[in-house]
Design a protein that fits this description.
This protein has 8 helices and no strands. The chain is mainly alpha-helical. It has one domain. Helix 2 (about 25-60) crosses helix 7, helix 4 packs antiparallel against helix 5 (about 105-120) and helix 5 (about 105-120) runs antiparallel to helix 6. Pfam families: Gate.
């Protein structure tokens, strides 16, 4: 559906531009935006490689393992059924740890594994369990200790201080995660 909306917006925008005699302006805008997009992607790729390297160092130094040890007791309290299964809880911990460190690409396989493990434990196949729903909420609202993607985008756009968003990001994602867990726990009682 969104593809149709974008097509309609672009089609009518170009049509109105051509009918109003602004064809040359449209051509220049397309060329300029294309070249600036390529430049932006190249800059972003370099910065993302840097952050992936930093995160790999954090992983190899044991920082992610320390974070996962801190998370396990908390997760055992909020996940009722999964807390008894080490494989499922381990996959959840690894997913959330990778997300907290800004490694969303590395977190995806752990998230898939966590869902597979929770589905293995699920009594009602084909229907998401309460723990599965809670995991999705935590995955979507995960607390960001290092928002590397946003920092990379800000740096690629020549921000004066790309890292200034670390504290606001930490506060907003922590708030979102807490509210998400509270909402899940309330809704679990009724559904």
């Amino acid at each position: 559906m969104i593809n149709y909306i974008w097509f309609i917006l672009i089609f009518f925008g170009v049509l109105v531009g051509l009918l109003s005699g602004n064809g040359e302006v449209i051509s220049k805008a397309i060329v300029n935006s294309s070249s600036s997009t390529v430049t932006f992607i190249i800059e972003l790729t370099g910065i993302m490689c840097f952050w992936c390297g930093v995160m790999k160092v954090a992983e190899n130094s044991g920082l992610t393992e320390k974070i996962s040890k801190l998370l396990k007791p908390i997760l055992k309290r909020i996940f009722k059924e999964v807390a008894k299964d080490e494989k499922a809880l381990g996959a959840i911990v690894m997913n959330l740890t990778a997300n907290m460190m800004g490694l969303s690409n590395a977190a995806t396989p752990f998230g898939i594994k966590a869902m597979e493990e929770m589905d293995r434990l699920n009594r009602d196949k084909g229907t998401a369990s309460n723990d599965m729903a809670l995991f999705l909420v935590l995955n979507a609202t995960c607390i960001q200790l290092i928002p590397s993607t946003i920092i990379s985008i800000r740096a690629a756009c020549n921000s004066a201080n790309a890292g200034v968003i670390i504290l606001p990001t930490l506060v907003s994602t922590a708030t979102a995660a807490i509210v998400g867990v509270i909402c899940c726990k309330i809704l679990q009682r009724y559904f």
